[in-house]
Amino acid sequence: MIDIKVPTVGESISEVTLIKWLKKNGDYVSRDEVIAELESEKATFEVNAEQAGILKTVGKEGDTLKIGDVVAQIDETAAKPESQSAAGNQQPAEKKVSSNGSEIKKETLAEKPVSKAFAQDIKATPVASAIIADKKIEPSKISPTGSGGKILKYDVLEALNNPGRTVGQPMFSRDVRNEKMSNLRKTVSRRLVEAKNTTAMLTTFNEVDMSNIMALRAQHKDKFKEKHGVNLGFMSFFTKASCFALQEWPAVNAYIDGDEIIYHNYCDISIAVSAPKGLVVPVIRNAESLSMAEIEKKVVELATKARDNKLSMEEMQGGTFTITNGGVFGSLMSTPIINIPQSAILGMHKIEDRPIAWNGQVVIRPMMYLAVSYDHRIIDGRESVSFLVRIKELLENPAQLLFGKDPVKAMLEL
Q: What is the pTM assigned to this prediction?
């Protein structure tokens, strides 16, 4: 019998939570097959079977385990069940040849894909369907009471009389539920409170006209996607602009360590991502040395890993400056909280058409509010405001992102 123990996942981490068993007690597992998911205070990671055999689960979902605790055992002497062996030796599907000589794979009823339209078909009585169409009601917001889940006229009228009511929720319900806080959520909570209590945090605001960037993206997005295999998003522009501004204002890229200030000659940009288990901030290393395409690819890679809970500890450690985008959720303006021990964070927001004064005229432009929250102990007001103004200049004149200067001024050496 082989013991599967909780692995060491970080120097400061002493315990983890068993989130989910991916294999059941008594299942036969192959070597290196994933059997469970564990969550530390910083990330979710998987546990693999060290040998093939019959799995015996020890911990339960929701249990808190110490590093080195036995989470499962594997009986490597057990024989592989005949059902699994037979499944592995199945012959390929029988093939037929059509009149034109092409092969036709024999499909069973279970193998045929279910029509998407059929899967989304909503069952309702004729009267109910007529009211739904007339009042343009979303069927998913109606709680059906008819046999087989059919929507009746009464159900539609109830939905109209009780707008905003949650489907399936009893009227005047006062139910509550308790849910254990995950290790990751505990860590996020602790760090946010620590940032509030240990930094002299202030926020400065500005706004940027996104016309030029939006025009540039519209002009080049297809060729960019064709050549690089990734979409041209806004994050690469903001990351590039931040890197230039951070190198011009090094205090924004520094942090306090005891009685010393640690300055960084590189830009490791943390990207705040809302993951299923909570907020995570994976890091783009040496962003100042990456091209726009390389930044976009890294953003997609890290965001995908975050959504799938596949981020490693190394991918979330470090970082000298953070960018967060509340605009994807519709936020018009906010004051982001510093990601300690860093000293500043840039907040992006929703792009919204607004009237502005331009060359003595009122015009409509796609505008975005920007916010920089900073630690006033290390960053003065002049530095924070100048840093944000520099980002505004670079974004409104994206040609400057090539080497951080206005092309004409660079040519004239001004």
A: 0.69
